[in-house]
Design brief:
mainly alpha, 110 residues
C-alpha cells in the first residue's frame, strides 16, 4: 500500500467511526427519553433514567427498579360501573348434583 491509500483508508475509517458514534449517541439519548417517560408514569423520579449512562449494568439497574418498585399510579375506573362485573359469578357446583340418584348395583361376579 502506498501512503496515499493509507491516508484515504484512515480518513474513511475516521468518518465511519464518527457516524457510528453519532448513531450510538442518538440511540442512548432516545433510551434515556423513553425510560424517563416510563419512570415518571410509574410515579418514580425521572432522573433515575440517567442510570442508563452507567456502562454495562445501567440498563439492568433501571429495569430492576421498574420491576421491583411499587408503581404509584391512579387506579383506572371500573368500566362496568360500581356494581357490575364483566362475567357472571361462577356456579357453586357444576354440573348440578341430582337430588335422588341411586347408583346401579354392581354386576354379578361369575
Amino acid at each position: 500500500m502506498d501512503p496515499d491509500q493509507i491516508n484515504h483508508m484512515s480518513g474513511a475509517i475516521a468518518g465511519m467511526m464518527g457516524f457510528f458514534m453519532l448513531f450510538g449517541l442518538v440511540i442512548v439519548a432516545f433510551a434515556i427519553f423513553l425510560f424517563w417517560r416510563i419512570l415518571t408514569k410509574a410515579g418514580l423520579s425521572g432522573p433515575l433514567a440517567l442510570l442508563v449512562l452507567v456502562p454495562g449494568i445501567g440498563w439492568i439497574i433501571v429495569v430492576c427498579i421498574l420491576a421491583f418498585s411499587e408503581w404509584r399510579v391512579v387506579p383506572v375506573a371500573n368500566p362496568y360501573g360500581s356494581g357490575l362485573q364483566p362475567y357472571p359469578p361462577p356456579p357453586t357446583s357444576y354440573p348440578p348434583a341430582p337430588t335422588n340418584y341411586n347408583p346401579p348395583p354392581p354386576p354379578p361376579q361369575p
